[in-house]
Structures are given as C-alpha cells and as structure tokens.
Amino acid sequence: MSYALEICKLYKSFPGARRGDEPKQVLANVSFQVNDGEFVSVIGPSGSGKSTLFHLIGGLEKPTSGDIKMQGRSVVGEQGHIAYMPQQASLMPWLTVAGNIELALTIAGVAKAKARAQAEEWLSLVGLAGAANEYSHVLSGGMQQRVSFLRALLSPQRLMCLDEPFGALDALTRMHMQTWLLSLWEADRRSVLFVTHSIEEALLLSDRIIVLSAAPASIIHELHVPFPRPRSEALWSDAGFVAMKQQLYELLRPKSEVFT
Amino acid sequence: MDNKQNRKFLPPVIVLALFLLIWQAAVRIFDIDAYVLPSPASIVKQGLNDWSSLLQHMKATLGITLLGFGIGAVLGFLLAALLHIIPGAKAGFYPLLVLTQNVPLMALGPLLVIWFGFGMMPRVVLITLVTFFPVVVAMLTGLTQCDPKLMNYMRMIGAKRAQLFWRLELPSSVPHLFSGLKIAASYSVISAIYAESIGSNKGLGYYILLKQRGFETAKVFAAVAVIVMLSLILFGAITLLERMFVRGRVPSTSSRLRRKKGEEAS
Ligand SMILES: Nc1ncnc2c1ncn2[C@@H]1O[C@H](COP(=O)(O)OP(=O)(O)OP(=O)(O)O)[C@@H](O)[C@H]1O
Ligand SMILES: [Mg+2]
Fold first, then answer.
1. Chain A residues within 8 Å of chain B (Cβ atoms)
2. CATH code, domain carrying B64
3. Which of A44, A216, B6, B35 is 20 to 30 A distant from B182 in Cα terms?
4. Minimal-distance CA residue of chain B relative to A78
5. Range of A19's domain?
6. What is the dihedral of CA A122, A123, A124, A128, to 10 degrees?
7. Which CDD domains match (chain A) (predicted)?
8. Number of folded domains in chain B?
9. Is residue A8 within 8 Å of residue A31, measured between CB atoms?
C-alpha cells in the first residue's frame, strides 16, 4: 500500500556556522507515514527541527540521507507537491489578500479566473470579505495567518503541511479556528501534516501524534488518538483526553531528553 | 495631505528666502560688480528679459535629457534583468560595469563627438551612459535582495524560475528601481548640460557657455535656476509614478513611520 507521505530513515545536518565547526545535526533517523486522508500532528520542543522537516518534504532542502516518498514515489528535492503554510505568514506585500491567494493557486496550476473566484468565495465564507482588497501590511498578525492558512487550504495538492498555523492567534480566535478547521477537514478529509506546540490542539485535531525529541530530533513516541469523529471542544473535559494530555505533557517536559 | 505637504516644504522655502535676502543685501552693501556676483533681483530681471531665448534652449535640453534618460532607464532595466537571470553573468560583468564608471566624462565627451559627429547622437549617448548605471545597480540590488522568507515560500509551493522572476523578484525590486531612477534623473540633467557645452549650438549648456564668455553673469545664474527647476520637475514626475506603482505596499520603513505620524497628527 502506498502512503500519502512516507518518511524513511531521514537524517539532516547543516554545516557549522563557521569553518571548522562541527556540522549541526537536526534530524536523526526520523521515519513515519501519513495515510491517505489522515491527520497527523508533529509535536516537539522549539528548535527540534519541525520546520526543517517541512523544508525537506517541500524540497527546499535535501536530506543528508534517507528518503521521502509520496504515493510510493520518491520526491526528494522536488518542489510543488504540497500545499504549504509556513510558520511566518509570508504574504507578498505588493499583492492584496485576494491577490495573494490567487498567486498561490495559479502557481499550483489553477486557472487565473478560477483562482480569483475561489479566493473571493472563501474569503467571504470565513468573514474576511472586507479584507479581500487590503494589502497585507494593514492586517493584524492573526488575520495574516488566516489568509496564509486559507491559501494552503485552497491549494489543490493532496497533502497539506501546516507549520504552526494558529501560533500567533489569541486563545479565543485559536479555539474558533480549531473547530473551524475540524469541521472543514471532517467534511473533506485531506492528508494533513500539522506542526503545533499545543498538546490540546494536537489531541483535538489529529488521528495520530508524533512526538519529537529535542535536537537532533528523533521520534520518541507515537500516539493514536482514538476519539470518534466528529469531534468538538466538549472533548476537552473527557477523562481519556485529560489522561492523554497528561501523558504527552510528561513526554515533552525537558527531562524527556533522558528517553533519547 | 495638504497640511503634510506644507509642513515638508515650508522649512526649506524659508531658508531659501532668507538666503536670497542676505544675498541681495550683501550685493547692495558691499557694492559688488554685477559680473562678479549679480543680485537675485537682477538675475530675475535679466532672465525675464532673455526669457524666449532661455525657453528655447531649455526645450532643447529637456528633449535630449528625456531621450537619453528614457533609453538609459530601459537599457539599465533590461541589463539588470539579464545579468540576474543568466547564471554567472553578474559575476562576470558587474565588476567591469563598476570599472566603467571611473571613466571621466571629460574624456568621454570629446571622444563621443569624434565617434558620432556633431549631431544629437553624442549627447544622447553620453546621457544614456550616465543614466543607465544607477538604474542597473539599484535594480540588481532589488532583484537579489528579495525577502528570503518569501523566496522559500515560493519555492516550497513549486514556483518555476520564470515565476520566481515575474511574481516575486521583479515586483519586490520596483521600489529599488524607483530610487535608481531618481538618482539617474539628476545625473541625466547634469550630463546633458555638460554635453551641450562641448559639442552643440543649442541647449542650456551652450547658453551658459555663451553668456559666460560675454561676462553676462546674471544670465548664467538665470540659466542655472532653470536647470534646477528642470531637475525638480523630472524628480517630481518620477515620484508621482512611484506613488502610482508602489501603492499599497510598504516602500520603506521611513515612509511607513511618516505615514503613521501623519495619521496620529490628523
Ligand atoms: N538553513 C539552516 N542552516 C543552519 N541551521 C539551520 C538551518 N535551518 C534550521 N537550522 C537549525 O536547525 C534547528 C531546527 O530548526 P527548526 O526551524 O526546524 O526548528 P523548529 O522545530 O521548527 O522550531 P520552532 O518550534 O521554534 O519553530 C535549529 O537549531 C536551527 O538553528
Ligand atoms: Mg518551526
């Protein structure tokens, strides 16, 4: 069977900052799969190499060794096969909100008129219709992230890679966005690889959670999240949820380095 | 908006007015000869007397300036794009391009006259040569220094080389292009004046040469005033274009701060 994404024994090290420095090992022997239509979260300490993992999947960097396959085919060094939301919003300042979404879609091969129509339709669906013709520098950080998220959501690639999509949002908006994403995704199940720092967020959204150690990152735990769908925030007070949260919290405490 | 403009223009205008007053007074008090230093009032008077001739020469200068500037700007833009797109081209040509800027105009001007004759050609070529360099430098800077965050994003979503150029590098270098054009604009006027003083029978450069020889210093000053106005008009036109093209984005931190302050004040 072929996976939406298959990471095989991935290693990545960067050359040292100065000549003579030791190379910096960021990923060490990372292997996991994402099934078609599965929602997988990656959780790990800051600086452990989560964004680097995305850069490898997206073909921005090449792994030191190991393989990355999509639908059974190696995609190492190839670009354009994922819908991507970077950690920093990365909107083009010379384009309007709608223009930014249109740009992402046309680069992914969507016809211009269709891209435009889709951008406008979805902006009004998420209550951002008023901002469609604004330039990004007048948007709040949270709004920029929502636009950046929408851009990834509308991109036609089958695998979505979201790097801390709700990181810059306030708690309330974040919760709202989580339930919104949940309902969207449960209606149309794409394969998702999702980086987050929030244990609750990972538990609420994912089918599976991958826990990375501090750098050099390797997988210290993999957790199936058994709660039935459709889910809602009501889950937060569920006894099973609380127990898993506690378990993950223990894993992620700084002493977790002992495990590696 | 009007208020903001006033606030910006008022201080230099006041300083200039004071300066002219002192100048006028000094010429009176120390009884300076008109061919050494004419008073501002006599400059205006003489300039108005000779206005039709000044206007005619100004038109000639404006003509070759715009022609040379236009050709230089287009060539500069194209060359920058080529040097950027063709791998290795920048490394090979850019240092040599910088070297060419050390050729003094004094040596180049007469040579161009020898090569291209006494027509308009040598003047336009000179202005073009002077104009295109700042455009190339500014444009190349813009093309190579686009936001790495945006570059990474575009590559991750699979943008091809041509898409990177048209949809990222080119738009993000537009503000740089305009700062290059502004520098080139004042260079182009100055070099037009110089070119007219060596191989021409019209234009403000020629006019100045003529009046200098006749010790009509006031008219020389009048011509200088016209040249300054010409430069300002060209500069203003480019600024206007910049506003049209760079609308909606943040051209630089300083102007963003300015805008913020303006909002607070209003
Ligand atoms: N191009 C690079 N060259 C050298 N080192 C790099 C490069 N990119 C990332 N690193 C290093 O790799 C490590 C992992 O960085 P990465 O951004 O992947 O972490 P992260 O898990 O995404 O962190 P955060 O949760 O804070 O976003 C860091 O120590 C970083 O300094
Ligand atoms: Mg990161």
1. 54-55, 58-60, 79-84, 86, 88, 90, 92-96, 103-104, 107-108, 135, 137, 155
2. 1.10.3720.10
3. B6
4. B158
5. 1-82+160-197+204-260
6. 150
7. ABC_NrtD_SsuB_transporters
8. 1
9. yes
Secondary structure (3-state) at A40: strand
- What pLDDT was estimated at residue B3? 66
Please tell me which of the candidates A79, A88, A93 has its beta carbon nearest to residue B158.
Answer: A79
The reply to whether residue A108 touches residue B155, judged by beta carbons under 8 angstroms, is no
Question: Is B181 a domain residue?
Answer: yes
* Assembly ipTM: 0.91
Which residue is associated with the tokens 């701060």?
A: B257
Contact A135 B249 (CB under 8 A): yes
Q: Which residues contact B212 (CB under 8 A, 6 or more apart)?
A: B220
pLDDT at B255 over 70: no
What CA–CA distance (Å, rounded) separates B75 from B81? 10
Evaluate whether A47 touches A214 at the Cβ level (below 8 Å).
Answer: yes
Beta bridge partners of A26: none
pLDDT digits (tens, 9 = 90+) for A150-179: 999 999 999 999 999 988 788 888 888 898
Mean pLDDT of chain B, nearest integer? 87
Instruction: Say if residue A64 is in the same domain as residue A185.
Output: yes
* Pair A188, A240 in one domain: yes
Please provide the size of chain A in residues: 260
CA of A13 to the centre of ligand 1 (A): 10
Q: Which residue has the higher pLDDT, B162 or A253?
A: B162
Residues of B in contact with A135 (CB under 8 A): 248-249
Average confidence (pLDDT) over A9-21? 88
Among partner residues B158, B167, B172, which is closest to A80 by beta-carbon distance?
A: B158
